[in-house]
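Memo subject: From amino acid sequence to discrete backbone structure tokens
Action wanted: Derive the backbone structure tokens from the amino acid sequence.
How to read it: Take the token row as a discrete description of the fold.
Attached in line: The record itself begins immediately under this heading.
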Amino acid sequence: MTNKFRHGFKSESEFYASVFRKELSLAPHAPMHAKTLAEHLEIPVRPLSTHDGVPDEIKTFWQTNGEDTFSGVTINDGTYKEIVYNDFHHPRRQNSDIAHELAHIVLGHTLTAPIKANGERDYDRAIEEEAKWLGATLLLPKKALIHVILNGMPIEAVRDEYGVSESLYRFRAQVTDAFRAAKNTRRKYGTAAE
């Protein structure tokens, strides 16, 4: 994610993660899965494999050939929005994909058809980078990362409880400087913190 975001975007992302946890009566560091957030926001989330609007041959293709090419899409029909995700992916990947699509909605991105009339993919790098950042932040905000580090949570527990991949955890820990923040917190307050 080499894009330079608009001023305040990263703080705004942390704010969204905090507000949504508060609305769901979760601690600031608690796991919040994407489907839980979607339900809270009243956004339907439907798996590709059982979506009645997707032909069986397309489902078969994504199940057998397209595991890394289609993750999810937000269907936008004016005021109605629905997320369709590739449930042939690993559950942690699905969680991340749904969070990414939710980020588009939360940020109010103008969503267009994913394929142009000439058959090329319609890809707006700026909004995709914003959705990647916010989606990852929703799943692992800095407060959660500091909590995980201070409590010595093994990576297996992080993966299981937060529903994220090890690479997403490591990425977020690096870009938020969570290890340094945890060290400073430990120095100031002691060993573990809620």
Q: What stands out?
A: The two ends are 30 Å apart (CA to CA). The longest strand covers residues 72-77. The CA atoms of residues 72 and 85 lie 4 Å apart. The chain has nine helices and three strands.
